[in-house]
Amino acid sequence: MKVLITGATGNVGLALLKALADQSSIEVVAGVRDMAHDKAHFPVLEGLECRLFDFEKAETFDTALQGIDLVFLLRPPHIADIPRYFAPLIQKIKDMGIAKVVLLSVQGAERSNIIPHRKIEKLILEHGLEYIFLRPSYFMENLTTTLLAEIKAHRTITLPSRQAQFNWVSVQDIGAMAAYLIAHFDSHKNQPLVISGRENLSFGDVVQRINHLTHAEIRYKSVNPLTYYFLKRREGQPRDKVMVMLVLHFLPVLQGPPQISDRFEAIMQRAPTSIDQFIADNRSFFLS
Fold first, then answer.
1. Per the structure, how many domains does the chain have?
2. 145 pLDDT tier (thresholds 50, 70, 90)
3. Which SUPFAM superfamilies match (predicted)?
4. By CB count within 10 A, which of 156, 163, 241, 252 is most buried?
């Protein structure tokens, strides 16, 4: 089976490529935006077929999808206009006779029509594709990517999340489970699968863990949604990205604690990575 991995050089994409290296039955095609740059900077791409693929350039879709049996699809963080970018892509996937899609969605997508991931799920359903909606909880790796610049510059994490509970999951676990689901697609198709960690913790809780385990001195600052919006816009962040971050970090205030799922353990036959283990493994990120 030939599989196109979109977002191949992102955190989840790289974890997935690493996990797929053990799946001899899968012929992997990595979708990349800059062939020369990405091959030079990402050793995991060595020996893989790479094809030019850009969500924002529909002219790359035909060649990237040629001969593909299954597409692993995700939403780049900066893309919020789903009708503009994903509707043509899903239509092209259907037109080219590709029946199978594994979508990286998000836990709780089914409860909110404003979440971009839910809009993509609906497009896939409307086009009659076979699917697996992989719905992970909150990425631990956001601490070492999206939120890292503020941690490094100000020793703070500022969000509109109050003391809302988040469930924390490792991208490495997501990649491992996605690889398994791709290899065993028919056994799990046409259903959503939630992947979560074992603990629900607020950002205040997690910052306390970070400080305790690494001896860092980081503060969590909760602000109201409007303050957060204007703060991030003044920092120069695009409106769409700020709105997605708002939804991601404020909705849990309204929704209550997320459900803890045992699907990862049932399918992968091991425990998910704990937040304490993640902090210990990434200690250097949190030190000034």
1. 1
2. very high
3. NAD(P)-binding Rossmann-fold domains
4. 252
Instruction: Enumerate residues 6+ apart whose C-beta is below 8 A from 159.
Output: 203, 220, 221, 222, 223, 228, 249
User: Is residue 227 in a domain?
Assistant: no
Residue 24 has pLDDT above 90, yes or no: no
**First-to-final CA distance of the chain:** 46
Report pTM: 0.94
The answer to whether position 133 is within a domain reads yes
How many angstroms separate the CA atoms of 283 and 128, rounded?
45
Instruction: Round to whole Å and give the CA distance between 1 and 28.
Output: 8
pLDDT at position 37 is 94
Exposed e or buried b per residue across 122-149, where buried means at least 16 C-beta atoms within 10 angstroms of its C-beta: ebbeeeebebbbbbbbbbbbbbbeebbe
Whether 60 is in a domain gets the answer: yes
Nearest-5° Cα angle at 20, 17 to 24: 140
Range of the domain at 88: 2-139+169-195
d(CA 190, CA 187): 9
Q: Report DSSP state, residue 220.
A: E
Residue 49: give its domain's CATH number.
3.40.50.720
| pLDDT tens column, 61-76 | 999 999 999 999 999 9
The per-residue DSSP string of 46-112 comes to: TTSEEEE--TT-GGGHHHHHTT-SEEEE---TT---HHHHHHHHHHHHHHTT--EEEEE--TTGGG-
